[in-house]
Amino acid sequence: MADWDLGQLRALAAAVDLGTFDAAARALHVTPSAVSQRIKALEQRAGAVLLRRDRPVRPTAAGEPLVRLARQLDALTADATRHLAGDATVPHVTLAVNGDSLATWALPALAPLAGDVALRLVREDQERSADLLRDGSVMGAVTSQAVAVQGCTVEPLGVMRYRPMAAPAFVDRWFPDGPRAAALAVAPVVVFDAADRLQDRWLRARRVDPARPPRHLVPASADFAAAVRLGFGWGMLPAQQSDADERAGRLVPLTDDAVDVPLHWQQWSLRTAALDAVADALRAGARAALATPV
Length: 294
What we know:
By secondary structure, the protein is of the alpha/beta class. Helices cover 45% and strands 19% of the residues. The two termini are 44 Å apart.
């Protein structure tokens, strides 16, 4: 088993986190030359180039596992220090959570931990959040990926159920005869960003080319729901965001069918008390808020 040097690993992680050897040197209170030497020694030990020396520097495929290892060791070291020395320092946990979960169930689930854990939340699409686990940027992620990232564990959380929703006036204008294919091909649609595929999936199921209708890009969960409610276009909304507006008559479903997005919790296999507390809180929140897969 390889015997990795902690100082070299910290130099690698600092360079990736801060983008340059100079910034890493300032954070580690050493010279840029010392950072460079530590990383070169680590590359010799690994037998591979670990960094792309651009601005900012980026880990190579070979470097990603070692960056993740460096962050895991730092988290475990800090956790052990707090327990042994009675350190009152609040531990931090970095998480990737998709925007719709953040806007609905995840923040309320995490709120009881606010005084005990410093949370660093990264909003990322559920289909891309596993990449942040892979390169060590986050310690845990709410993700649609059911296969565990190397060095992580995975468990199902539940399903976010999305339905096509629109404002009543929008439906009256664009779908007087119902959401037929011809009308769907010209009616404006609201999408989260260029990677948002939910509306595309629903259109394809109705034999409509997703490239045909005009699109409004609204890259924030609450604003996305507001845009649909204001009549910019129709969009796929989770029940947690649309139920109250539907009961109040501000939104109506185009159809009763839904698109289910299964969510999973992935976290580092190396556990800390703070990360375990976050996982427990998210499990409880998901049980209360998410649907059970059909």
